[in-house]
Amino acid sequence: MGFKVGQKVIYPNHGIGTIEQIEQKQIGATSLPFYTLRLAATNSVVLVPVANANEVGLRSPITSAECEMLLRHLADDFANAASDWKDRFKDFSDRMRTGDIFEVAEVLKNLTYLSHLKPLSFREQRMLERARYLVISELAAVCRQPECSVEPRVEQALARACARHERQPVRTRAAGAAVGH
């Protein structure tokens, strides 16, 4: 899938950016095309080799139809995360790196729920903030609404997910986690 100059794209773990140019760069003896991507969050520039865009996880933002799907997904129950923080952190890091906003939403739901039960570690707190930013910024960009309008809808959906999760019997949640849902 090729991207065009001016197109909005999602760069995994960093969020939305804009392709500013596609330029040739000399790497050793070879000249390769690169996307020059400006990240909205930091205004920094990232170079992504065109040939590696898929492996890196560069993708188009979700569609406006998928916005409602994402909000519904955020309100759904979820499987319990691993109880050992190292296993949980690795799983969540892997999900964040996929660049798939629905995977990021799973991390957001789990960490939001955990944060209501106990204080999160510094690394998990940072990941929670990153996941929240990624979900809200993509929804805001796709729905063409300011983040301050999207944020309450995300918080509402997360509150519903946590309430649903509370109501699930423990053995049901454990079975869901064992299956990997």
Search tags:
181 residues, 4 strands, globular, 7 helices
Largest β sheet strand count, sense and barrel closure:
4 strands, antiparallel
What's the shape?
globular
Rounded radius of gyration (Å): 18 Å
What is the ordering of alpha helices and beta strands? EEEEHHHHHHH
Q: State the secondary-structure class.
A: alpha+beta
Provide an overview of this structure.
It is a single chain. The chain is an alpha+beta fold and 181 residues long. It is 55% helix and 18% strand. A four-stranded antiparallel β-sheet has the order 1-2-3-4. The protein is globular. It starts with 7 loop residues before the first strand and ends with a helix.
Provide the fold topology:
Layout: E1 8-11, E2 15-27, E3 30-39, E4 45-49, H1 53-56, H2 64-75, H3 85-98, H4 101-117, H5 122-143, H6 147-167, H7 170-179
Antiparallel strand pairs: 1-2, 2-3, 3-4
Helix pairs in contact: 2-4, 2-6, 3-4, 3-5, 4-5, 4-6, 5-6
Question: What's this, in brief?
Answer:
This protein is an alpha+beta fold. It is built from seven helices and four strands.
